[in-house]
Design brief:
single chain, Glutaredoxin, 2 domains, 9 helices, 7% strand, globular
Length: 218
Amino acid sequence: MPDNPEIEDVTIRIWARRASSSAQKVYWTLDELGVAHEQIDAGRTFGIVDTPEYLAKNPNGLVPTLETPDGFILWESNAIVRYLAATHGDGTLWPSDLRERASSDRWMEWADGTAKAAINPIFSKVVMGWEPYTEAEIDAHVAKADEVLRRFAPWIGERRYVGGDTLTIGDIPLGMILNRWFQLPIERPALPAVEAYYRRLRERAAYVRNVVQAPHVI
């Protein structure tokens, strides 16, 4: 907690750990928007999430959880990203035009429901060792991920970001899972448009600080 009680009263708190892929989305958003916040390590080796105090905030016992100075509490990383973008990034991360916002928002859903679902099994088996696997199984997972990303390639091949020329909410979850994809110790099929998009994301200091350079899972 901050030593200065005045800071404690005005700063958004985030319960999470830097290694959490879900939390990386939130930290990246905060950094892009320049929003001051206090990080409280929680989850896995840090504990806290199974305490009565934390469960009163987030009954799922997961991270991240956001709490505003006036006591508003929010969990689910995409919901937090949307809230932060709406309250601090209107017209930037949060497009003012409703249809532009909806177009960007759909890529948040696609990132978690389709891209992450295809890529995460490789991460869980190859990097984390949570499940036994054969090379044939990994090849099948890679083929599935390649199929999914090939659907995305034509879209991003015509745009700088998913919403157009500027970063929006739609890029946040997708940027997190693509970083995981490109850091997997595997041979990936060539996807030039997706690779170029990943390079553009890596030009953003906030993305590098909070996603690319995030610590390994602990």
